[in-house]
Sequence to fold (373 residues):
Amino acid sequence: MAKIGGQDLYETYQWARAVAWRYHLDQFEAEALLSILATLDKGRREVMREFQARYAGANLSDWQEARLEALLYEMEDLTAGVRSELTQQYTTMSVTVAAPSITETVGALSVAGLARGVNNVALSPAQLRTFFQETPMGGRLIQEWVDRSFAYSVQGQIRQAINVGVLRGEGYPGLVRRVEDGFGMARQDAVTLCRTFVSSANNQARDMVYRQNADVVRGWKWMTAGDNRVCPICLALHGREFKLGEGPDTPIHPRCRCIRLPKTITWRELGIPMDEMKQELDRWVIRGRRDYDGEILVRGVHEGGKDKTLRVGRYATADDWFSDLSTSEKQSTSLGPGRVKLLEDGRVSMKDLVGPDYQPRTLKQLEALADAR
Ligand SMILES: [Zn+2]
Fold:
């Protein structure tokens, strides 16, 4: 393997962080989608209830063309509530993605603060919300995407039936079936819109940071998800470089998972100390919540959610890391007081914590090992 120089290392670091962040967003997206589908399903039940109240048993064969057309407008009316709720949810989701994406992009660009001149983007959640309400994505606003989805699915199904003249013959049962089918299509759209909006919010956030740092970011580079599901358009664009404010939209198509990577001035010009940059790859993090007397409370993995980052350090080995921890930080590890004491006294080191069979040594075994030395 070729020796990795400073610039390559910096770019590899950007790439690796972007991949890790994208993975994190995938998890978020899966949760967001559940709540969006729940809204849609609740909306469908409400619409069907109201629908039933208005039309149950209607004899459509008697209806004039004008009345059938009016049915379409009423349908638009009936879905107004669920459309507005979905628009709100997508907008909130975009803000929820963009805010941490901005922080992540600043962190990556500056290599966790090693490059001093990197500016943050100071936008409040309210400002971000306005941004996502007013900025078109793929030529349309979030609200327009949602309205369009319903126009094609729920109303589209009825319109089609009116146009080919089957609705009168099918009567009320046919009408109900078409509305149900329409909601099924809207559900498919919701999956696509959710993915596309998450990707868009992530890339918009990245772009905001790049523009805010136009003195160090020269442009951006197209990076695909790098797997066998990448479409031909994006395969052709992978690795291609563009100036800031130029190039195609990301996402370029629904469900596109591509990411904008920064093209910067050199790491030397950025003022990144290379030794520390290399150490940044050995980062150790203390997570948790400090209580009133300074103790660090850590949530178990099974408890869900994620603890706040309290401190980031750079160490080549687990022993180096441990020796730099404060008393409360040591207490917040999974070691327990007995092992902490043995390590502090230098009687054992991290590698001693497991035996030759890679099973954890008990305190008793550790003490015996230390005594035998
Ligand atoms: Zn793509």
About this structure: The pocket of zinc ion is lined by residues 224, 234, 252, 256-258 (CB under 6 Å). Residues 6-259 form one domain.
